[in-house]
Amino acid sequence: MTNLAVDICGLKMKNPTMLASGVLDETGKSMLSVAKAGAGAIVTKSIGKDPRIGHSNPTIVELPQALLNAMGLPNPGIDAYKTEIAEALEGGVPIIGSVFGDGEQEIAEVARAMQDAGVAAIELNLSCPHAKGYGAEIGSVPEMVEAVCRSVKENVSIPVFAKLTPNTSSIVSLAKAAESGGVDAIVAINTLKGMVISPEAKMPILGNRYGGLSGPAIRPIGVRCVYEIFEVVKIPVIGVGGVSTGREAIEYIMAGAKAVQVGTAIWKEGPPIFSKICREIQEFMEEFGYTKLSEMTGVAHHGRT
Ligand code: DHB
Does any domain span residue 269? Predict the structure, then answer.
């Protein structure tokens, strides 16, 4: 009998799937629907100190095998969002609070408020590719990553995960910096910075011009990043980017991920995707004789120099 249960830094998950930040996590009710659908954990929308409207429309473009989005970190601010978290907690699965801010002090302050709201862990958005002064502008510099991680760790007692950007020449340096800053796990990857131009309109389609690319097109990049990070850090790695099937989740697990987040695929398949991915992981494990997820974690590293 296969067992999909996984413990990430003390978070007890009944399976290795998590809702990725930014999809179906604006309200307590939408997060409850994901909990009921079988996700092992839920990451909230990225939340800041104060309310933000976000970028002007259009904020999303659908592409073959990908989405390009620039929402602009719209959110109600941590004080208003606390009621949504309270509702989401009724779902009985660990809630991970995604936070952003303009520097170590503000990020630590929001993380502290998230902890007070009752979340089980913090995910630091050090990787939004297009919000001025936030996300990847802080998260592309190893020294800043380390400082933010250290500051948040000093201000909360729950586990802290650092979500890193692939828009860098060395995600490995960022992962090492986050680990030096004391975080408990690495989440890789966030979206890739991109642009789509309308030849007819002679202008970029997104209101913000630049956006973050997600979906199946980025999966090989995500898998490569998890593979590289697994070789240089001791803390757990959580994989994200383009997962919509059990086999794709297993790619990340074999690269070294202990859990896998699912975001863009929900756009097409909705919350049932979580139980579908788990069923497919289980079928694969039965076919190939695995009884525990840990028997697959990182196995793609064996036998390679
Ligand atoms: C947004 C944030 C992200 O972290 C990302 O990868 C893409 C978009 C946003 O809110 O715009």
Answer: yes
Q: Angle, to 10 degrees, between the axis of helix 246-255 and the axis of helix 219-230? A: 30
pLDDT in tens, 103-117: 999 999 999 999 999
* Residue-level pLDDT at 1: 67
Based on the residue annotation, tell me whether 9 is a catalytic residue of this protein: no
Question: For ligand 1, atom 7, which residue shows the shortest CA distance?
Answer: 212
| Counted domains in the chain | 1
Q: For residue 55, which atom of ligand 1 is closest to its CA?
A: 11
Boundaries of domain holding 269:
6-54+69-193+212-301
**Residue 305 reports pLDDT greater than 60:** no
**Bridge partner residues of 95 (DSSP):** 42
Measured CA to CA in angstroms, residue 188 lies from 24, 82, 115, 252 at distances of 20, 26, 22, 10
Q: Whose CA is nearest to atom 8 of ligand 1?
A: 70
The Cα–Cα gap between 294 and 219 comes to 21
CATH of the domain at 250: 3.20.20.70
pTM for the whole thing?
0.97
Span 151-181, pLDDT tens digits: 999 999 999 999 999 999 999 999 999 999 9
Q: Which one of 73, 187, 189 would you pick to mutate in the ligand 1 pocket, going by the greatest count of ligand atoms within 8 A of its CB?
A: 73
Residue 98 lies in a domain: yes
Residue 245 in any domain: the answer is yes
Residue 200 lies in a domain: no
